[in-house]
Amino acid sequence: MKTGRILIIDDNEDLLKAARLFLKRHFGQIDLEKDPTLLPDLLKNESYDVILLDMNFTQDVNSGQEGFHWLDKILEIDPSAVVVLITAFGSVDMAVKAIKAGASDFVMKPWENEKLLATLLSAMTLKSSKDELRLLKEQQAMMNQDLDHKFKDIIGSSPAMIQVFDTIERVAETDANVLVLGENGTGKELIARALHRNSKRADKPFITVDLGAITESLFESELFGHTRGAFTDAKTDRAGRFEIANGGTLFLDEIGNLSLPLQAKLLTAIQNKRIQRVGSNKVLEVDIRLICATNMPLYEMVQKGEFRQDLLYRINTIELHLPALRERLEDIPLLAEHYLKQFAAKYNKDIYKFSEATIKRLEKYTWPGNVRELQHAVERAVIMSRDNVLQPEDFFFNTGQSPTKDQGEINLDQYNLEDVERILIRKVLAKNNGNITHAAQELGLTRSSLYRRLEKYGL
Ligand SMILES: Nc1ncnc2c1ncn2[C@@H]1O[C@H](COP(=O)(O)OP(=O)(O)OP(=O)(O)O)[C@@H](O)[C@H]1O
């Protein structure tokens, strides 16, 4: 089936007819128009793949001014239109001027049919790439909006959080590298996104890399990309995260989990602001703002020779410490209310508040999983509650067993695999200071399956 919608605008009727006769054989639809003043209406009702536009509409004027005027008009109406200009009086200068003004190509009258066809076919290809690009950009903008929405509200009125807000305000606009420190679930990614959103790079990509989840062998290809055939699985050329983040922000999460050899590779890329795809000799310059996060004690790790000091000094121009939830009790009611509203709406439940005793209970608990844990606890309570006020018993920070089990004791009179699993996870987590990556490794689980279990057991 023939495809492609082409509009030809020229005041020479013979030329229009001849063009149609020839082009009809190759394209799906050829519309002709003598009068350019009708262009705005035409474009309102139809979308064309290519517009072939004459430069001169009055016999005696050869300056091309009219063509340029209508070119501007078309691009004003549809910035992604592909316009090919035609003129009998073309010159190299005019061609250059036309391209600069936004035309995609240029043909001269009288044209050879085959040449015209070739020009239109490549203009069609350009149009579909432009459309695809526009769609991708729209999709990305929408995804960013969704994510931003999800990560929008940073809640907190405790002095510690006010200090965090103050730092964000002061450093967001600069290009300074930021290191965000804090336990799991304290909002490190949330803060990284807020820094990006409030920076000059806000309309460029924010790209996350979870360094705790990348294997040694995939590190370089994930971060720097690869060329086709660089290794067995490299079926196509692929850009790495550094390249995709170009112009924007690269968020390296769990940087404390990086092995020393990989730290060296990362340092080189950050220092030189240049990368090479695996399998390629081409050096690519990258302009990124770097935000790193970890829950590991990087300074202690430097002392022990587990983390490179020079890398630390590269990434910690500004340091942000996110307090654990138990260190800012005053934020617990605020956060809990926020999530209550959110989940009551999501699950269509008429629950509007916490009883006082519930708030007290929430304030007493230690929240090893911090805000993420609170979020899940409220979600579960909203789902389970039959009342419209949440009560302490709607919150159980284990599977609802006796308090002794909550402390981590296994009751051997009552073999229950879930209890054992819950207690084991809790112990391993405590042993690893809440570090999910390490705990998952020790338990022989992936990070995401550990997260699933944490959620399941309300840990
Ligand atoms: N101050 C806050 N206000 C509102 N929501 C928050 C706050 N802090 C964290 N959250 C929420 O808690 C969840 C966990 O936050 P986030 O993923 O940013 O934490 P993290 O420190 O990066 O965790 P991890 O170290 O496990 O990757 C998210 O849903 C986030 O929106």
Description of the structure:
Residues 5-124 form the Response regulatory domain. GO terms for molecular function: ATP binding; sequence-specific DNA binding. The protein has 459 residues and is of the alpha/beta class. The protein folds into three domains: 5-132, Response regulator (Rossmann fold); 151-323, 3-Layer(aba) Sandwich (Rossmann fold); 326-457, Orthogonal Bundle (Helicase, Ruva Protein, domain 3), CATH 1.10.8. It is built from 19 helices and 16 strands. A five-stranded parallel beta sheet has the order 2-1-3-4-5, with helices on both faces. A five-stranded parallel beta sheet has the order 7-10-13-6-14. Helix 3 (65-77) links the parallel strand 3 (50-54) and strand 4.
Give the number of DSSP strands.
16
**Domain module count:** 3
- The span between the termini is 60 Å
Strand order of the largest sheet: 2-1-3-4-5
**Structural class by helix and strand composition:** alpha/beta
Question: What is the residue-mean pLDDT, rounded to a whole number?
Answer: 87
What does the overall shape look like?
Answer: elongated
Oligomer: single chain
- Architecture of the largest domain, according to CATH? 3-Layer(aba) Sandwich
Helical content band: 40-55%
Beta content comes to 5-15%
Radius of gyration: 31 Å
What is bound: which ligands?
A: adenosine-5'-triphosphate
CATH topology of the largest domain: Rossmann fold
Name of the level-1 CATH class of the largest domain: Alpha Beta
* Fourth-tier CATH superfamily name of the largest domain: P-loop containing nucleotide triphosphate hydrolases
The profile of the biggest β sheet is:
5 strands, parallel
Low-confidence stretches: 398-414
In DSSP terms, counting alpha (H) and pi (I) runs of 4 or more, how many helices? 19
